[in-house]
């Protein structure tokens, strides 16, 4: 799909990290980008910087997402590109040692449910609501393509570490959405893909550089090549390529410098 000036895009989690880089890269292609986030201050600032719009959207809330798409479409037109980077989750082992009471304690089902809502269900929510809008729009190229949806998984989907039973399994579920959803939407000309980033230098990770420089150096050294954390701009570059290459469909991309995560 040729990315043309004035085409609309939606990026969730666009107020930081991978989402911010993706929004910036799509705007550089001439797209009108709507940022969905709960961080109003940075969302407004970054939207202004790229000539886009900001919409306070909580991906955990159905009506919030519905309203966000309605507002973005009213401002920019029907999105042709959607990139879902936002998520919410918790961390914990299936069983952990209870230091106070002794014996093992189980990770509460409610905490797993929170992660499933914040990763897997939110991914379906954003993708399906975007697809509904795309399906009712006019096809604009010779392939009859109406849009591209890219979800964010993680290398943890394949290399889930200790303490990542929620995150790893739900990100694997995101990958599991891709092919059946792409097939569901093939007659509407809507593509669905996912990206599995490895360790990237997002603001969360960059905070470690000062707090624990030894751990920071170890993380960089753990990447086979190049021996550094990924740059958000490298993630965003792949996002642009996926959106612009109509033959990329139903695929899950690892973007990780060849890293394979150890158990811990």
From TrEMBL:
GO MF entries: oxidoreductase activity
Which keywords does this Swiss-Prot/TrEMBL entry list?
Oxidoreductase
Presence of keyword rRNA-binding = no
Q: Name the domain of life this protein comes from.
A: Bacteria
Cite the InterPro entries for this sequence: NAD(P)-bd_dom_sf, Sc_DH/Rdtase_CS, SDR_fam
Listed name of the protein? SDR family oxidoreductase
Please give the organism: Pontixanthobacter luteolus
């Amino acid at each position: 799909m040729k990315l043309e000036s004035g085409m609309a895009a939606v990026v969730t989690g666009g107020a930081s990290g991978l989402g911010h880089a993706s929004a910036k890269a799509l705007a550089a292609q001439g797209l009108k980008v709507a940022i969905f986030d709960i961080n109003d201050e940075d969302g407004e600032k970054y939207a202004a910087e790229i000539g886009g719009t900001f919409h306070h959207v909580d991906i955990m809330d159905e009506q919030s997402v519905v309203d966000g798409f309605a507002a973005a479409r009213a401002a920019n037109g029907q999105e042709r590109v959607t990139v879902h980077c936002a998520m919410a989750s918790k961390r914990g082992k299936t069983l952990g040692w209870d230091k106070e009471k002794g014996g093992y304690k189980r990770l509460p089902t409610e905490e797993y449910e929170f992660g499933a809502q914040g990763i897997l269900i939110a991914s379906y929510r954003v993708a399906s609501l975007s697809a509904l809008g795309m399906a009712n729009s006019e096809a604009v190229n010779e392939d009859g393509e109406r849009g591209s949806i890219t979800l964010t998984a993680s290398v943890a989907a394949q290399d889930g570490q200790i303490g990542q039973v929620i995150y790893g399994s739900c990100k694997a579920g995101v990958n599991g959405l891709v092919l059946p959803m792409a097939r569901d939407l093939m007659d509407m000309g809507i593509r669905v893909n996912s990206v599995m980033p490895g360790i990237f230098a997002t603001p969360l990770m960059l905070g470690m550089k000062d707090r624990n420089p030894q751990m920071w150096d170890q993380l960089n050294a753990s990447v086979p090549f190049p021996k550094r954390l990924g740059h958000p701009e490298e993630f965003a570059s792949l996002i642009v390529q996926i959106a612009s290459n109509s033959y990329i469909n139903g695929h899950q991309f690892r973007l990780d410098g060849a890293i394979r995560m150890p158990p811990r």
